[in-house]
Amino acid sequence: xxxxxxxxxxxxxxxxxxxxxxxxxxxxxxxxxxxxxxxxxxxxxxxxxxxxxxxxxxxxxxxxxxxxxxxxxxxxxxxxxxxxxxxxxxxxxxxxxxxxxxxxxxxxxxxxxxxxxxxxxxxxxxxxxxxxxxxxxxxxxxxxxxxxxxxxx
Length: 153
What we know:
This protein has five helices and nine strands, in the order βββααβαβαββββα. The protein is of the alpha+beta class and 153 residues long. It has one domain: Glutaredoxin, CATH 3.40.30. Strands 2-1-5-4-3-8-9 form a seven-stranded mixed beta sheet. Strands 6-7 form a two-stranded antiparallel sheet. β6 and β7 (114-119) form a beta hairpin. 33% of the residues are buried.
């Protein structure tokens, strides 16, 4: 697994969203995409991050961005998450862990001395040509949308 860097072509993917519709990265060709990976629906940090993107969604759309969240939760979990927090963007169900693997965010974690595999919280900003323009490694869940803007300045 090669680590992705700024300037790399973003790995292609296709998976189902919270509505059971197939979504591919190629669907966003010609648009800027904020592709954010998060560990789990309905957990405090993930809720804060999703709500921050929701609260700033119109501003980000106005700046030409499309928002896409990815976790390994299934479509049903994503639908509940979307409904509970009134999320206006696509949530991709990567239950096969193909996308998290391609983007290098399926990593070993350590909680209370117990090691396990999980999704690292990371945001990729992909430009209109499908290249990675910026990578946010240390996501501030309370200010994730501002981090996107700061990463491009």
